[in-house]
Amino acid sequence: MRLLIINPNTSTSVSDLIDAEARRVAAPDTQITTLTAQLGVAYIETRFESLIAGYATALLAAEHASNHDAMIVAAFGDPGITGLREAMDIPVVGLTEAALMTASMLGQRFSIIAISSRITSWYRENVERNGLSSRLASIRNLQDPLRDIGTVQDDHAEKLVALCQEAVTHDHADVIILAGAPLAGLARRVKDRLPVPVVDGVSSAVCHAETLAKLAPTGAVEGSFARPPIKPNTGLPTALADLLARRS
Questions:
Q1: 110-136: per-residue pLDDT in tens?
Q2: Protein fold of 2-96+204-245
């Protein structure tokens, strides 16, 4: 099985965290390719940054997805995921959706632990988009400025664990989601210190992607996720133009 993982952020240090955690959890025969966005921002906090990241992800998907069995959008918030599902013939999995589905199978109410305050409104909207607002206990976040996006979990591990415990104690969360690719692998490190299950987005996405690839679903030829209709376009990179030109 071949998985394509795209980091929609431009931080290669975060891509290293994603790749390492993905390889820890993937099946022994799964081949992983991890790519980093070539344009955009170091880490996504806002809706507009997510819009840019969705385009950057689409570029890499158009260039590299054809020889893979499933694809992962490796940023919490899943930038561009619904559009990518229209264009791709393979399953497309996002960190948010995968983590939410995993958490929903482990408990009734979940809390999300985020790395910044600005990011929380966008996260809340993503929970709503996935139809799970009634199960969201809380979103708690770091308040301190980030020294480096690649070292967040080392710089703030104790504060992140404290936020997790507060979500359990005060918000009555049954499950904790550590949100965002910069926290990849932290759940594995701290799960024995917390009284409820802790979910990691990267490992959840890899496991869900492997399952979907094994199920080998066909691409939609009708309905809202059928391929975009072929029409004239201007100024698109060759890979994107070629992707749009493919017929169902």
A1: 999 999 999 999 999 999 999 999 999
A2: Rossmann fold (3.40.50)
